Amino acid sequence: MTLPLTPDELLTTTRTVRKRLDLSRPVPLELIRACVEIALQAPSGSNEQSWHFMVVTDADKRAAVGEIYRQQVARYADSSRFAGRMFADRPERSAVQQRVGDSVLWLGEHMGRVPVLVIPCLRTGKPVPQGNQAGLWGSLLPAAWSYCLAARARGLATAWTTLHLGQEAEVARILGIPDGVHQGALLPTAYFTGTTFRPARREPVESVWHENTW
To answer: Nearest to residue 119, comparing CAs of 55, 167, 34?
Structure first.
């Protein structure tokens, strides 16, 4: 059963959800499986389909991954890149960024309690190459985003996170992910509190539109 969303509504209301993740409501595993099945329809380079989805529901493993995420959030919060300190010279954006920063810190403390953690992975059988990796990750990230869209259509919320990759090898050991399989994101998945979501405020298209030349 999916929500009555138009394609445009689905695309503009699939948000990164943190504080509104419902930590108390279990998520049926068959719902996650349905979302992954949708994700597998995404494109991949040469139709190789070398993606894998690690679905973590075990409480101890979720807690262990959550602790790693908490450590990485703490490091991120102390860095100059922290979302909460961005655009300090633009009051209208600074207020939004501070709210984002607060929600990042909240998720850092609660990641291990989210009912389902999904980690999309890419099997290469070898280390990730140096240099431009767009072609490599282009065979995984569309599928990961399709998973998020499918979850939204089924009344679930997700957050696109990557901070855990600072300790990717440790997460791999916890979850038994073999060598040659690389993690692309960490997608906490849960029902959400409140009613629905609305499109976010963005910069006008004219600020990013370049026609024929930059």
So the answer is: 55
